[in-house]
């Protein structure tokens, strides 16, 4: 049944995808890949998104999903595939998921490996609409995530009404967190809430070992960011095994430094015996 809102065959714009790894730090392995929209010649996401007006948003959202799943299938990885979706592009949650289900069925792509990240949720006034979409996804065993958590105004309101599987902490909260006590307190509180609600956290935008070590010290295990790998066009970026080495603060004199505490933990007998990622 087509509600008439989308016509994926006539989008009129071609685009592709880049992949960025999400790592499980303690396990020293790649947990999943987020797909990011790119032009067919690796132009930025903005280059494509600027061409998507209101009339094409429904079709665009449909194509993103099937394109991401088809590309992931051709790259033959078996981790999580994370897809950004536009809640305002979903007209009817039940109908709009059908082509995604069809692609999964056609390729034998397990639904539990697909995670949907909701973007721009601060612009969504209709939380009921989003809850309906998420409920529909959960029904089909897809994973759900709130993206950029902490960046908007409605994150906590949304969380009070609906709990996803994953929260992706916004990179602005992570940037220089090692030298910003206020950010540490805010992030720690969010982590405590998520622990109580049984929600896993992905810390986005990790760029330095100092940022990483604070977040590891806070008990976070899933990470994404340039520290590990930049997105790669139509391919899977490698993550250097060096990224999983414990951080050393050569010049640090602070005995309570989170990096030092982390290093001690990291050197405990059961953590050093793990196999590094290839
Ligand atoms: Ca995202």
Structure in words:
By secondary structure, this protein is an alpha/beta fold. It has a single domain, classed as TIM Barrel (Alpha-Beta Barrel), CATH 3.20.20.450. Helix content is 36%, strand content 18%. It contains 11 helices and 9 strands. The protein has helices spanning 45-49, 57-75, 93-96, 98-107, 127-139, 155-161, 171-174, 181-197, 209-217, 258-266, 269-272; strands spanning 16-24, 29-38, 80-85, 114-118, 143-149, 166-169, 200-203, 222-223, 232-233. The protein has an 8-stranded mixed β-barrel. Helix 9 (209-217) packs across helix 10 (258-266). The longest helix is centred in the first third of the chain and has 19 residues, at 57-75. It is globular, with a radius of gyration of 19 Å. It starts with 15 loop residues before the first strand and ends in a 6-residue tail after the last helix. Calcium ion is lined by residues 34, 84, 117, 119, 147.
